From TrEMBL:
<dbReference type="GO" id="GO:0005525">
    <property type="term" value="F:GTP binding"/>
</dbReference>
<dbReference type="GO" id="GO:0043022">
    <property type="term" value="F:ribosome binding"/>
</dbReference>
<comment type="function">
    <text>GTPase that plays an essential role in the late steps of ribosome biogenesis.</text>
</comment>
<dbReference type="InterPro" id="IPR027417">
    <property type="entry name" value="P-loop_NTPase"/>
</dbReference>
<feature type="domain" description="EngA-type G">
    <location>
        <begin position="177"/>
        <end position="352"/>
    </location>
</feature>
<dbReference type="Pfam" id="PF01926">
    <property type="entry name" value="MMR_HSR1"/>
</dbReference>
<keyword id="KW-0547">Nucleotide-binding</keyword>
<feature type="binding site">
    <location>
        <begin position="120"/>
        <end position="123"/>
    </location>
    <ligand>
        <name>GTP 1</name>
    </ligand>
</feature>
<feature type="binding site">
    <location>
        <begin position="295"/>
        <end position="298"/>
    </location>
    <ligand>
        <name>GTP 2</name>
    </ligand>
</feature>
<feature type="binding site">
    <location>
        <begin position="183"/>
        <end position="190"/>
    </location>
    <ligand>
        <name>GTP 2</name>
    </ligand>
</feature>
<dbReference type="Pfam" id="PF14714">
    <property type="entry name" value="KH_dom-like"/>
</dbReference>
<feature type="binding site">
    <location>
        <begin position="230"/>
        <end position="234"/>
    </location>
    <ligand>
        <name>GTP 2</name>
    </ligand>
</feature>
<keyword id="KW-0342">GTP-binding</keyword>
<feature type="binding site">
    <location>
        <begin position="57"/>
        <end position="61"/>
    </location>
    <ligand>
        <name>GTP 1</name>
    </ligand>
</feature>
<dbReference type="InterPro" id="IPR031166">
    <property type="entry name" value="G_ENGA"/>
</dbReference>
<protein>
    <recommendedName>
        <fullName>GTPase Der</fullName>
    </recommendedName>
</protein>
<dbReference type="InterPro" id="IPR016484">
    <property type="entry name" value="GTPase_Der"/>
</dbReference>
Length: 439
């Protein structure tokens, strides 16, 4: 479902981050010649020969370490392995097979996932004498590479994409509204879907991390068709670490990519947390229609100011999403849950709305008369005309005399004028300026 996920795992200091950065094409992971630098999973979108996938870098695994940081890194790697379609197991070609490698190999075999054994730091075409020892790990033919010198990386990427499952993409008809329910674990995502459906199709539990994979639930209401993508947190019920919540970001990324509308769920008892801001930011950057859904509102003691104060708190913390409506609900008591579908349909329509070129240019002309464009060194911005070039999200292109004169503040002013006239509530809009070539 969605793009395939590839996790790179191995003991510390085998070169996972160097490999990750080389494949990503830019320096994302911290690279330092010291074990334990990459403590959390880091991920990026990658494309190889028209195959798109998400690559996860993980902290090194030391299976028997009692150190709390090392054990948390092990947990992070386990989470990455849990969600990956393909696992790249990286070992050090200079040191040979170690006890830690053997224990990690045993751990990986239990995942039942496709595993590619990669021997890093093989910096020439001549293989080291101990190279063939890596066959004893029982994970098939080892692939020698050099992340630093980019040796054999193409062959490795070919093998990775060959391992992808056939059913990674799920296409739905255009008239079906795809809704991703995103947020931290245990915020009530599954409960909300069950409340909307009126039946228990998704497991609901008070233990964070019950839903291990995104679950698609088709649903029809008043002749409108929806698909809910539940992205509840992950992990076994037995142990839930605080930093496991980072898994929800990865799961949310996959769901956001497949969605039209995102329900960004916030726990009323906790308010907007850093994790919430990170997840909401991905929905915003992806250009998805969004609704901020504050759940567990029934558990909050209220007075005449509670609603306004909480709304202000959300607007302050998620200032970049001022366009997103806020809905206060209780999935447990069904309070205002009946409004959710109404909001989804509304923001979906806004997300796909188109303004005619004539109407847009009338609006721009009036906006320019009300507030003259900025000038720089005697040269003033001129907007010749504008047009809407895309929907989902709405995108506008303005043809101007000089792109450098199109200051951010004036573009924001024009966006506000468009919103005042045409609303676009619930959806980000983008405005791009292009220089019109003079004849």
């Amino acid at each position: 479902m969605g793009k395939p996920i590839v996790a790179v795992v191995g003991k510390p200091n085998v070169g996972k981050s160097t490999f990750f950065n080389k494949i990503a094409g830019r320096r994302i992971s911290i690279v330092e010649d010291k074990p334990g630098v990459t403590r959390d999973r880091i991920y990026t979108d990658v494309e190889w020969l028209n195959n798109k996938f998400t690559l996860i870098d993980t902290g090194g695994i030391e299976p028997d370490s009692k150190d709390i940081i090392i054990s948390q890194m092990k947990t992070q790697a386990e989470i990455a392995m849990d969600t990956a379609n393909v696992i790249v197991f990286m070992v050090d070609g200079k040191t040979g097979v170690t006890t830690a490698d053997e224990e990690i190999a045993n751990m990986l075999r239990r995942t039942q996932k496709p595993i590619i054994l990669v021997v890093n730091k093989v910096d020439s075409t001549k293989l080291p004498d101990h190279f063939y020892d890596f066959y004893t790990l029982g994970l098939g033919e080892p692939i020698p590479i050099s992340s630093v010198n980019a040796l054999n990386l193409g062959d490795l990427l070919d093998k990775i994409v060959d391992k992808f499952p056939d059913n990674v993409d799920t296409d739905y008809d255009e008239d079906i509204i795809k809704v991703a329910v995103i947020g931290k674990p245990n915020v009530g995502k599954s409960s909300l879907i069950n409340s909307i459906l009126g039946e228990n199709r998704v497991i609901v539990s008070d233990i964070a991390g019950t839903t291990r994979d995104a679950i698609d639930t088709p649903f029809e209401f008043n002749e409108d068709k929806y698909v809910f993508i539940d992205t509840a947190g992950i992990r076994r019920k037995s142990k839930v670490y605080e930093n496991i919540e980072k898994y929800s970001v990865l799961r949310s990324l996959t769901a956001i990519e497949r969605s039209d509308v995102c329900l960004i769920m916030i726990d009323a008892q906790e308010g907007v947390t850093e994790q919430d801001k990170k997840i909401a930011g991905y929905a915003h950057e992806a250009g998805r229609a969004s609704i901020i859904v504050v759940n567990k509102w029934d558990l909050i003691e209220k007075n005449n100011y509670t609603y306004n104060e909480f709304s202000k708190h959300i607007r302050n913390e998620l200032a970049y999403m001022s366009y997103a409506p806020i809905l206060f609900i209780s999935a447990k008591t069904n309070q205002r849950v009946n409004k959710v579908l109404e909001y989804i349909k509304y923001v979906s329509n806004q997300h796909s709305m188109r303004i005619s070129t004539g109407a847009l240019n009338d609006l721009i002309s009036e906006a320019v008369l009300l507030n003259q464009p900025p000038s720089d060194k005697g040269k003033r911005l001129k907007i010749y005309y504008g047009t809407q070039v895309a929907v989902k999200p709405p995108k506008f292109v303005l043809f101007v005399n000089d792109v450098e004169l199109a200051h951010f503040s004036y573009i924001r002013y024009l966006e506000n004028q468009i919103r005042q006239n045409y609303n676009f509530e619930g959806t980000p809009i983008t405005i791009e300026c292009k220089a019109k070539k003079q004849k």
